[in-house]
């Protein structure tokens, strides 16, 4: 079975985000960009499926600016076999909405016929948490979101999901879309030889027009603002002082 | 046009807190609010929903396919009802986040997730970048499919029961099936509705050591939270995780113990009214948001705190 892994290039999770003074968005000029952390987990899981003999080929796909090639090279260095870049944005400020991403991915699925799409549950930039569910809907497939465990059966996948009350296990018919959560695995680092090898792996470049998909946004962003800064309070010298303050000053106990 | 609110379910019961908070947001969007209760044997839940203030009508879809809130049958159900509604709303719980994007895609509209404010019928505010920025967005779509960050909306009150009517379920496509739930029973308050939360981080060191957090929580009638590091290390179950990718909470009092205060953790708790941090590193970022900080070894301070709470 072929596994498709969509990977998004996002601001590195360690970077302190700053809102631009004109309120048009977040400052992305000269900041470190990386693969969305959840997508690393998805790539890792795909590689483990191949190591276990379930996956035959791993195709990584990214949609965005040309520089998303770097993210795809990272996926290739981790172990993906080939990559597709859909160049859909001219500047990093343009974030392609989950609906448009899902439409493009649905076209890629039509071309590639994977048995599984493994993707992140959420992109840490827009925090949408939507693309996997949308893709699954467009394909008329089953979805298994927030996976912390994945087992492949004949014609099905058994997925343990992190839900509000604990864990839920479901069985989904394959092909299916599975979105991954933090505890599914710990992604490997790419070794230097693999980084070198990745440079020679195939990377196709396409555009939304090649797929006949309109990526214009449905949501217009009016303003982006910073949340009010929370003032640091006081340091207390002892547990007694803490209890006293909580009781008499804050009145919360 | 009206608003369809998808009720949060806990098995066949109504999860009233999350539903009532999302209802407050739904009411601000304009139009009558109808609450959809989908489950198996959910007549009681429908009656409970009918008594939430602002519900004009409750639609009850009682079928086996809805028993475990699987996304595919619920999405098909909502799409079959969508014609009459301009807004489709759910709390931004795992259930809501799972199903709403699916509904939106089937309707060919963009979903608007995790809103913290309703500015108008088509304009909403939502956090991005782990709550380090907020974007105000206007939707150009004819229907708005929205999930609501419950920690920022008040619970809707009570009313005389609105009418309940049954709605038919579309045929189940059987794409997914439920296998099992692993849910730890607890008498503690729920994280997302608790007034007080005591949270432990990596520094707690083991599952057994979490007992010291539990003792403090017992004294305060509090819910227990955890950082991702504590959950990843197996000290705490996944449903205790607070943060960007865990639960978002805003209690009156949040006590962070042995938690450094990474932005992904702050994303889930920095709207708490009073924050207390206990950490042995005085430089820990958690102190930048704490109203009261105690620089101390938790293994000394926490048992003492428990004792002094009386
Ligand atoms: C995509 C992504 C999503 C994430 N989502 C979340 C999320 O939802 N929630 C979340 O919490 N994290 C999340 N994280 C992880 C986050 O970045 C941090 O790694 C995590 O919050 C750290 O947990 P911690 O504070 O318990 O551990 P650490 O950062 O290791 O901090 C432990 C703290 O304990 C203190 N300490 C040690 N010993 C003692 C002692 N004896 N007494 C008192 N204090 C002591 C130390 O000084 C330190 O400050 C996410 C990360 C990524 C990449
Ligand atoms: N532009 C993109 N390119 C590739 N994958 C994407 C893109 N946007 C979203 N995804 C995938 O969808 C997941 C969820 O993203 P989101 O719905 O935006 O939170 C991500 O973890 C990726 O796997």
UniProtKB/TrEMBL annotation, chain A:
PROSITE patterns: ETF_BETA (PS01065)
GO process terms (BP): carboxylic acid catabolic process
The organism's place on the tree of life at top rank: Bacteria
The entry's keywords: Electron transport, Transport
GO molecular function terms noted in the UniProt entry: electron transfer activity
Domain (Electron transfer flavoprotein alpha/beta-subunit N-terminal): residue spans on this chain: 23-215
Cofactor(s) needed by this chain: AMP
InterPro entries listed in its UniProt record: ET-Flavoprotein_bsu_CS, ETF_a/b_N, ETF_b, ETF_beta_N, Rossmann-like_a/b/a_fold
Presence of the UniProt keyword Signal in the record: no
Purpose: The electron transfer flavoprotein serves as a specific electron acceptor for other dehydrogenases. It transfers the electrons to the main respiratory chain via ETF-ubiquinone oxidoreductase (ETF dehydrogenase).
PANTHER family (UniProt xref): ELECTRON TRANSFER FLAVOPROTEIN BETA-SUBUNIT, ELECTRON TRANSFER FLAVOPROTEIN SUBUNIT BETA
Family: Belongs to the ETF beta-subunit/FixA family.
Quaternary structure note: Heterodimer of an alpha and a beta subunit.
Protein name according to UniProt: Electron transfer flavoprotein subunit beta
Native species: Rubrimonas cliftonensis
Lineage: Bacteria, Pseudomonadati, Pseudomonadota, Alphaproteobacteria, Rhodobacterales
Automatic annotation (TrEMBL), chain B:
Cofactor(s) required for function per UniProt: FAD
Domain of life where this protein originates: Bacteria
GO MF annotations in UniProt: electron transfer activity; flavin adenine dinucleotide binding
A Pfam family: ETF
A GO biological process held by the record: fatty acid beta-oxidation using acyl-CoA dehydrogenase
Keyword vocabulary terms for this entry: Electron transport, FAD, Flavoprotein, Transport
Keyword Endoplasmic reticulum attached: no
Cofactor note: Binds 1 FAD per dimer.
Coiled-coil features, chain-numbered ranges: none
Residues the record lists as binding FAD: 202, 227-228, 241-245, 258-265, 279
Gene3D superfamilies linked to this entry: HUPs (3.40.50.620), TPP-binding domain (3.40.50.1220)
Electron transfer flavoprotein alpha/beta-subunit N-terminal domain mapped to chain residues: 3-182
PANTHER family: ELECTRON TRANSFER FLAVOPROTEIN ALPHA (PTHR43153), ELECTRON TRANSFER FLAVOPROTEIN SUBUNIT ALPHA, MITOCHONDRIAL (PTHR43153:SF1)
UniProt family annotation: Belongs to the ETF alpha-subunit/FixB family.
Described function: The electron transfer flavoprotein serves as a specific electron acceptor for other dehydrogenases. It transfers the electrons to the main respiratory chain via ETF-ubiquinone oxidoreductase (ETF dehydrogenase).
Descriptive protein name: Electron transfer flavoprotein subunit alpha
Organism listed in the record: Rubrimonas cliftonensis
């Amino acid at each position: 079975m072929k596994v498709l892994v969509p990977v998004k290039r996002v601001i590195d999770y360690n970077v302190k985000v700053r809102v631009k003074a004109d309120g048009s968005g977040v400052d992305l000029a000269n900041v470190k960009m990386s693969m969305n952390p959840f997508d690393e987990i998805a790539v890792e899981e795909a590689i483990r499926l191949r190591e276990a003999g379930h996956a035959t080929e791993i195709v990584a796909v990214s949609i965005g600016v040309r520089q998303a090639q770097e993210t795809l090279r990272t996926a290739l260095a981790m172990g993906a076999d080939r990559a597709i870049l859909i160049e859909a944005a001219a500047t990093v400020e343009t974030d392609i909405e989950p609906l448009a991403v899902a439409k493009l991915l649905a076209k890629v699925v039509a071309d590639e016929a994977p048995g599984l799409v493994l993707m992140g549950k959420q992109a840490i930039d827009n925090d949408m948490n939507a693309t996997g569910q949308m893709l699954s809907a467009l394909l008329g497939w089953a979805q298994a979101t927030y996976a912390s465990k994945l087992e492949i059966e004949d014609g099905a996948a058994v997925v343990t999901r992190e839900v509000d009350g604990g864990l839920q296990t479901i069985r989904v018919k394959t092909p299916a879309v599975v979105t991954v959560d933090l505890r599914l695995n710990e992604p490997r680092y790419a070794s230097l030889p693999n980084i070198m090898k990745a440079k020679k792996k195939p990377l196709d470049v396409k555009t939304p027009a090649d797929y006949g998909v309109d990526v214009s946004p449905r949501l217009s962003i009016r303003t982006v603002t910073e949340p009010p800064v929370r003032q640091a309070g006081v340091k207390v010298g002892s547990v007694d002082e803490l209890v006293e303050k909580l009781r008499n000053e804050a009145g919360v106990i | 046009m009206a608003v369809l609110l998808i009720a949060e379910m806990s098995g066949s019961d109504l999860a009233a807190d999350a539903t009532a908070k999302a209802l407050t947001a739904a009411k601000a969007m304009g139009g009558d609010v109808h609450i959809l209760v989908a489950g198996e044997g959910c007549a009681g839940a429908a009656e409970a929903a009918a008594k939430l203030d602002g519900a004009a009508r409750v639609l009850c879809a009682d079928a086996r396919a809805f028993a475990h809130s699987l996304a595919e049958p619920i999405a098909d159900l909502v799409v079959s009802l969508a014609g009459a509604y301009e807004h489709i709303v759910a709390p931004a719980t795992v259930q809501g986040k799972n199903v709403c994007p699916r509904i939106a895609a089937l309707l060919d509209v963009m979903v608007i997730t995790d809103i913290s404010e309703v500015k108008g019928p088509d304009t909403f505010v939502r956090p991005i970048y782990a709550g380090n920025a907020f974007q105000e967005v206007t939707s150009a779509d004819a229907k708005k499919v929205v999930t609501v960050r419950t920690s920022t909306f008040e619970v809707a009150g009570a009313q005389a029961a609105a009418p309940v009517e049954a709605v038919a379920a579309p045929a189940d496509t059987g794409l997914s099936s439920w296998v099992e739930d692993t849910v730890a029973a607890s008498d503690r308050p729920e994280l997302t509705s608790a007034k007080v939360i005591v949270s432990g981080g990596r520094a707690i060191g083991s599952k057994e050591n979490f007992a010291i957090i539990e003792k403090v929580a017992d004294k305060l009638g509090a819910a227990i939270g955890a950082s991702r590091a504590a959950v990843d290390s197996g000290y705490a179950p996944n449903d205790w995780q607070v943060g960007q990718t865990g639960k978002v909470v805003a209690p009156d009092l949040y006590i962070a113990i042995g938690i450094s205060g990474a932005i992904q953790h702050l994303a889930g708790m920095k709207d708490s009214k009073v924050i207390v941090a206990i950490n042995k590193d005085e430089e820990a970022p958690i102190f930048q948001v704490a109203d009261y900080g105690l620089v101390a070894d938790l293994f000394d301070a926490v048992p003492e705190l428990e004792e002094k709470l009386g």
